[in-house]
Amino acid sequence: MVVNPFKPTAGKMPPILIGRQSIIDDFSEALTNGVGAPGRIMLVTGQRGFGKTVMLTEFRRIAKAQHWEVIGETASTGLVTRLIAALSPSGIHLDQANISPSIGVSGIATASLGQMHFAAESNPLTLRNALNKRLASKKISKGKGILITIDETQAASHDDLVAIATAVQHIITDADESDTPDADKKGVAIVFAGLPYMVNDLLDNEVTTFLRRALRRELDNVPLPDVKNAFLETVAASGKTISEEDALEAARKSEGYPYMVQLIGYYMWQSAQRQGSRVITADDVAVGFSDALLAFDDAVCAPALDGITGAEKLFLMAMAQDAPNPTQVGDIVGRTRRSRSWVSKYRAILIKDKLIRSSGHGQLEFTVPHLGQYLQSL
């Protein structure tokens, strides 16, 4: 049975992690280089469809290959509760959970970080203690540790992020203060992945200031020559062929957006397959792009606009009138009937959130491919 080699499903590993090797190397080398290596605390950001979930999947694969224990989580209510449960010995059942960051009042009391009560224990088990207990187990070899990946970090509660950040910071400090030889120290690696504004929210929090020392990597568009080569190699490995010219045209249509690369690849390959052809033609590329756009609008463009304010949407709609071409900042003033200071304010906000970017002197363009055309259709 011939299987389509392209995998546009969220989190599914694509055939080639094009344009991401340097980030993969940063992480893999950090595990090898021991406690304190910068890549052991990493912030991975990017717009929807830029491959954040795929990167976390690859990181977990690498860690497992290096004999680390791995825990993969997606931020939602009860995140710290689930982390503690995953770290705890089997057979311990949750009685009740009360997760909160450490709060101390001099001379009065201190509440434990990430506190949870278990039916099997009378004492609260904190996230820090759960990590330390797991690291102390014989199941984790010397020089190895625990990798925790957290996807969709922008959806995490403030308290959960504080609890996780504080616990990991203490684990790192504990390792630094031990007399264990560096080569034998067990450690924790943690990778947060989320939308671009996540970084500002994390780093602005006074309790998580240690994350400013984390290695920050932003996933961006993949260079078109790399996309073209990925199409050529992936198609050839599947038993079909595509010309250099058609592979380049498919790459241009993707605009180097990783999810669109997978969508176009999937649908153009499927178009040829339905005809029983071993050759992906220019017509297949056109069909693939048309089908990809429908899926892209639902999976990327619509979610990209979730949570934007009315003022931000007004700004984007003014830009959309020029899509797919860039927009002159001066034209936005007239179209929105707002002041230049208003335009400057929302220009800065939307650039920070990676929805738009500067494309030359006095010009702006959408960061997400086809977002302008999608707004035109609303």
From TrEMBL:
Domain Orc1-like AAA ATPase intervals: 17-169
Top-rank taxon, per record: Bacteria
InterPro entries, A to Z: AAA_16, P-loop_NTPase
Protein name according to UniProt: Orc1-like AAA ATPase domain-containing protein
Organism, as annotated: Bifidobacterium saguini DSM 23967
